[in-house]
Amino acid sequence: MTPVIEALLERSSEPRLQSPAPDQHTLDKAFACAARAPDHALLRPWRYLVVSGDGLAKLGELFASTLGAEATAKARDKLLGAPLRAPMIIVGIACHQPHPKVPEQEQTMSAAVGMGYLILALQSAGFGAMWRSGPMASHPAVIEGLGLASHELITGFLYTGTVVSEKPRVPRPEPSSFVSQWPF
Ligand SMILES: Cc1cc2nc3c(=O)[nH]c(=O)nc-3n(C[C@H](O)[C@H](O)[C@H](O)COP(=O)(O)O)c2cc1C
Fold first, then answer.
1. Would you say residue 111 lies in a domain?
2. At 138, which CATH number?
């Protein structure tokens, strides 16, 4: 097994995260890995926002601002606290550019692959990560509050930090259950 295959086979999302968050050197390397995502026509259709420190509470306020006046205090507290589940959140953004051969869907896929590489790089550096989306990822108030342009969309919120306790192992499907030869 190569180290890369080993890292892939060990990859697991980790929801229970605490400080410290990845340091700048780790982040620099991880983003360099994300930029290795296959990318039709080299459009570089992605960018990232790093949120930590006071920014996490601000992100919670932005999430809570999506609630109407009728919302319960419980619902508000849940959104306020959501970003505090990790010491750092990396917001993945797909930046669509008009191109005659590269539809938006391909550009989103490229940005999503970058998120995957980012997770792997962070895990290989000893940090945990979990890719989340939920209704906040597509809410207009969140999109505007994070400063996205009309040609951009949120690929996800990557929660990252130091693993408190590892998630129980998730059963992984056997390749034979999802791979077949064609023609049948
Ligand atoms: C685009 C995307 C969005 C996701 N959003 C959420 C989410 O909002 N909440 C959640 O619990 N898991 C979400 N997941 C799934 C987790 O990141 C994770 O993959 C899942 O819990 C399975 O764990 P594993 O990665 O260890 O297999 C999302 C995954 C992807 C690819």
1. yes
2. 3.40.109.10
What mean pLDDT is reported for the chain?
97
Determine the distance separating the centroid of ligand 1 and the alpha carbon of 164, expressed in angstroms. 18
Which residue minimizes the CA distance to atom 29 of ligand 1? 131
Mean pLDDT of 124-131: 98
Q: How far is the CA of 184 from the centre of ligand 1 (A)?
A: 32
**What pLDDT, on a 0 to 100 scale, did the predictor assign at position 68?**
92
Q: Which domain holds residue 95?
A: 17-52+88-162
* Spacing, Cα 130 to ligand 1 middle (Å): 7
pLDDT value of residue 112? 98
- For the Cβ of 87 lying below 6 angstroms from any atom of ligand 1, the answer is no
Look at residue 62 and tell me if it is in a domain. no
Q: Cβ(13) to ligand 1 under 6 A? A: yes
3-state secondary structure at position 104: helix
Which ligand 1 atom lies nearest to the CA of residue 155? 1
**Structural domain contains residue 184:** no
Task: Quote the number of domains for the chain.
Answer: 1
Q: Report which ligand 1 atom has the smallest distance to the Cα of 13.
A: 26
Measure Cα distances from 52 to 42, 43, 107 in Å. 30, 28, 27
Q: What is the pLDDT of residues 37-85, one digit of tens each?
A: 999 999 999 999 999 999 999 999 999 999 999 999 999 999 999 999 9
Q: Are 43 and 107 spatial neighbours (Cβ–Cβ below 8 Å)?
A: yes
Backbone torsions φ then ψ of 111, nearest 5 degrees: -65, -35
Residue 151 confidence class, pLDDT cut points 50, 70, 90: very high
Picking from 7, 8, 11, 10, the residue whose alpha carbon sits closest to that of residue 129 is 11
> Do the domain assignments include residue 43?
yes
